[in-house]
Each structure stands twice: as structure tokens, then as C-alpha cells.
Amino acid sequence: MRNGRHNLEMDEAMPAGRAMYPPLPAYYRDAQFQLIYFRTDPALVRAHLPPPLVPDPEGMAMALGLWAPTCTYGSYAETSLRLRCQFNGQSGFYTSHQHVNNVAVLCAGRERWGAPKEYAEVAFEQCEDQICTRTTQEGIEIMRLTTRIIGPATENEMIPTGLSFRLKIIPRADAPGPAIKQLISYTAQESTTKQLHSASADLSFGNTEDCKLADFAPLQIIGAFHQVMDLTEGHGRVEYDYL
Q: Has residue 236 been placed in a domain?
């Protein structure tokens, strides 16, 4: 039994009686984030946003690298691509691509919040003030984030991330089409920044047959940060139900 539980009546996740991940809240300690804000092709951002999200007219996006050494789900590394948007006047970022090297994190993210998590080889490397996170899938490097710490920063210097939007789709079992299709928003239940630094940054993307990221190549790097945080992960919110 995973997590030491077996209660079919109380289970909220698959597989019944032996869920792949523990119940919320989930805890992260000393999680390291690379945040690279950049401008890309606005038409590409528009094409990857589900309605009713409104794209940023300047094509702002964010690449994120994460190393979670101590976490409820177990340690893991992750990269994601997030696109700046608005929903009902609220600013946020929509997660269009996300890759992790931990199966429990993949299942929890997809099933709970509709995070578009895929399994990949994600390597987090730190050498003094330089951090590099590389994502490889099918033997091809599809994302590389490199940041070099410049000096201390304050949260006022960062671009506000607002809400984190995801599109949750679960297919029907009895016919084609979705059984669930919802726009989900998420913010951390609690968070404490322990370190924050501004950084210089390099960012590159690649393609596999099924994952096309190269077209998101940065037109301009707007800013970059390295952040170390403790955070608590709770439930999200259904912002829009398509069905």
C-alpha cells in the first residue's frame, strides 16, 4: 500500500486503495527555482492559450526550472513553460508544457490540477553561482535554462506571476470526448522566500516529434531570478467549466 493507506471508500485518487501520491497539503522545503522571463512570438502564445484566456500582447512568457530536494512527493526536478495571460481581468501565466522526473509528481499534477506534466530526464546542476537545468526527452535536449547569480534581489523587482492556470481534461470512458474539461487556477497555500537573487540568463529550446518547443525561442530576455523557498501546496480552484 502506498502511503500506508487502504480505504476504498475514502480514496480520492487512482489507483483505488493505493494512490500514487499522498493527500494534500504537500510540503516543499528549500525548493530552488530558476525563473527566466522572456518575450517570444505573440502569435505562438495566442495559439497555445485555451479560451477564455486572453494572451499578453507582447508575447511575454516564463521558463521555470525547479529542484525540490525535500518534498512530500519525494525529491525531483522539473521544467515548465508558462505563457502570460489574463482571465476576467486577473493576470497570470498558463502552463503549456511541463516535464518532471518523478512519477508521483506527474500523476498528482495531472489528476489534481490538470498540469500538462510529461516524464523526461531533468538534470539540475549547480556550480558556485551558476545553475543549469536541462530537460531531455527521446535523447533530445528540449529545454536548457542557465542562470548566473548577480546579487541579492527583492520580491518587488520580480514580475508578478499572479495566478497559475492549467487546462484539466479527462476523457470519457464510454464515448469520444471529455468527461471533465475545466480551467484551473492555482497558487501556493503558503510560501516563504529564504533566498532571492537576480541573475543573468541563457535559454534554449529544442524539438522532439511530439513536443515542439523550438519555436518559442526568446526574442528578448526580460529578467531572471534564483529563488529558494519553503511552500505548502493546497487545492486549486475551478475558474471555468467548459461542459
A: yes
Cβ atoms of 107 and 79 closer than 8 Å: no
Burial of 40 (0-12, 13-18, 19+ CB in 10 A): buried
CATH number of the domain that residue 117 is part of: 2.40.400.10
**Is the pLDDT assigned to residue 8 strictly greater than 90?**
no
Pairing of strands 190-205, 220-233: antiparallel
Cα-Cα-Cα-Cα dihedral of 34, 161, 121, 114, to 10°? 160
Alpha-carbon radius of gyration of the chain: 18
Residue that is written with C-alpha cell 499522498 in the block? 22
Report the predicted TM-score, pTM, of the whole model to 2 decimal places.
Answer: 0.93
